[in-house]
Fold:
Amino acid sequence: MRRHTSIVILVFVSATAPAQNIGGALQGVVKQLKDKELLPKPPQISPTQPQVNDPKIRAGELPSPDRTVENPNKLVVNHGDADLKGPLIVVTNGAEIAYRGYEIFGDRIEGNSKTQIFKAIGHVMVLGLDAFVKGDEVTVNLRNGTFLAKDSFVEARPSLLGGNIQRNLYVRGGQTYGTRNEIFGEACDVTSCDLEHPHYHLQAAKATIRPGRRAIFRKVSVVVLNKTIFKLPYLSIPLDERTYRYMPEVGQTFDEGYYAKFKFGIPLKGDFNFLDSHVDYYTKKGAGLGLDYSYNAPNTRGIATIYSVLGSDKTLNITSRHRSDFRFGTLTVDTNYQQNNYLSTPDSAILSSRIGFLIPQARGVSTRLGVLYNSNNSGGYTSESQTFTVNDLRRWTSDFKTTLDLGFAKSASSSGSFSTERSQLDVKFRAEQDLHRATAQFDYQRSIPVGDTSGFFSGSDRTPVISLLSDSRRLFGRGRNFPLPFNAELSLGEFANTLDKNRVTRANFDFNVSRPDRSNKRLKLDVNGRFKQGIYSDDTAQYVLGLGMVASYSLGYDTSFNIRYNNLRPYGFSPLSIDRIGKTNLLTADLSTRPYRTLLVGAQTGYDMLQLEKKSTAWQTIGTRLEYMPTSYISFRSVATYDTFQGVWNNLRVDLAYRPGATFVGVGAKYDGVRKVWSSAEAFVDGFKWGRLRTSAMLNYNGYLKRFEARHFQFTYDLHCAEAVLTVIDNPIGFRSGTSINFMLRLKAFPFNTAFGTGTSGQPVSLGN
Structure:
């Protein structure tokens, strides 16, 4: 709790935004505090006492930014009696100073502008952009971003805490201290409820906060309505995970029956290793037990999880991710094992493991070693594969670099009496030499069978290929506005031909031009072209000509008329499949216009001259769209396509959205013109409120099957700083179909999400799914 206190103080210390950047943001805060008499007041003088140089009433506002000041971060005394002796400063009598982007108030402030250490005593208040701190004594070190606060109160905003925190946190602590990356608290109290007497708060003997990552409490009591509900020796809450469940869950699914899920934190030594236990029960599956272990040391971090369902269908899931940093490299190990997982791998055992080791040696120089292992045992079928890889990236000089990839793969599979085995070595090497005006490349790529070679042929071999690449900028200079920018490549090499399983030598010249129009004119014209010539060792040759043009005329800020023409035609013959290029002779056009400010109309189509040569329908599919928004909270959209080959409107989609306030209502439908049926429909309501109850609903209907594909409902009851959430998910079609019901309590401040709006495989449910 106090941890957050420290967070706020810390962020004040670490924000270090120049004073001129936050003046406007703080003026309103300071004024409100002054109006509520929360700021320390200067000593009052009796009205009957003669006064000389009347003290000015302190406005409590940062001075307006003055960008002409040579040192905008200089210390400014806004109020109080200041005693300056070199870098030392003591301000008393209602002290107020501004420095490094925030203000400090107190009865007495002592500081050293050289060491940048300041100590405020008595009615202390520190103001910043993301929070404010009140306390009896606060010491900050602006140089290294450390702080110490005693008997403090902090309001920490989400921008300060980072991660996915969604509401302010309020912290009272006996003592807080730390840095901008880690805050510690002792005898602290934290809540996200903004009432004077909060609905709930957590009391902890010790707290550790890592902004944006995790909050850790030890010897914590959960107090609701001033009554201690339960006590825990340890509580750890991630601040960057929306799927973390820190509260019990109850519900029902088709696969699991009724269930109850509980998660308990197990205290470990230190605040860098975390262990959570899972204790679950399913009426259809039995008991479920699991552990989540995460660790984070200066050079090692990772996570390991194990979960098992102990009922009749024994299920075991094990995953781990590990990383170790050494002076000479980085080791990563990832493992995933699933045995009889009824959600994804029923009646199967699957193991996947990956090991990688990166050895950085200098800038642009590194070596990476890798091992990948996969196995699958499913009934009468088994498979196993192993892959060993080496990647070496080396820059020999500023102009010369090489890349080497080696991979040895071995795989085996069996099903009944049939089994296969295969091993191969893959070699890929590239060398590049920068010639300033051009780049020379040497490529060698080959797959070599190991052992039995029957039926083996690699169609990706290049043994070798030598290329010379350049462009107009490199040849004629970047500063010149070349009228027709181009890229050119000249190459000679040997390629594997998958058609006849022979090797062919090819000499190739590839020339591409592109002239985009980046002017601000209403009428623009983009032009591109291509010439490609290939000569092959089997006495064949092929050249390709290509032309592309785009003419665009702007009718308004979001409307235009565009015409595109593409022509691509090969001449001759190529024995290589990688050089086989089809013919294109296509003209397309699209138009978008606004007859009225609230109405947008668009259409597009194309004309294929190749189809005309074949005496077929040359006109391509015609697409139309209409968008109508009479007000800011109502919008209507329709999209339709006309099939010129069948002569029917084959697809129509309409959508209506209505947002009168916090509530959003959306309705959509699709019509199949060929089968003459409404193929799907969807209705979505979000944020409909009735008192404290907020309701969301989504219905997805399949017109072909005449039944609903998804029916989702979520009811959220507002408990001010918390919510009670009931989710009903009904997916009657597809894999793992059925209905699930889930109920949970959540604190609004912490990240959270539900399964509302997702399908049985985690995919978003939408129109057409």
Q: What stands out?
A: Confidence is low (pLDDT under 50) at residues 1-72. Residues 567 and 585 are 4 Å apart (CA to CA).
